[in-house]
Design a protein that fits this description.
- The chain is mostly helical.
- The chain has a single domain (1-79), classed as Ribosomal protein L15e, CATH 3.40.1120.10.
- The protein has helices at 2-6, 38-41, 52-63.
- The radius of gyration is 18 Å and the shape is elongated.
Length: 79
């Protein structure tokens, strides 16, 4: 809430602030169950087409279905 206020948020009726956690780092692709040549699996270097911010916005949208995501920004980092 401090970061939101610093960016100009003021409490208004019908507007809600939500915090969403997203894990950091690259995404891991699940390994195949059947036998494959290890060079063809492609587990290590897979990258998501979505940004972390977009993932967070989608999660907030799923949690608060009636509302609409207006804005999103980075708040803090752990670790």
């Amino acid at each position: 809430l401090d970061r939101a206020r610093a960016l100009g948020y003021k409490a208004k009726q019908g507007i809600v602030v939500a915090r969403v956690k997203v894990r950091r780092g690259g995404r891991k692709k699940s390994r195949y169950e059947r036998n494959r040549k290890t060079s063809k699996i492609g587990v290590n270097s897979m990258t998501m087409a979505k940004s972390i911010q977009r993932i967070a916005e989608e999660r907030a949208g799923r949690r608060f279905r009636i509302m609409e995501v207006l804005n999103s920004y980075w708040v803090a980092e752990d670790g």
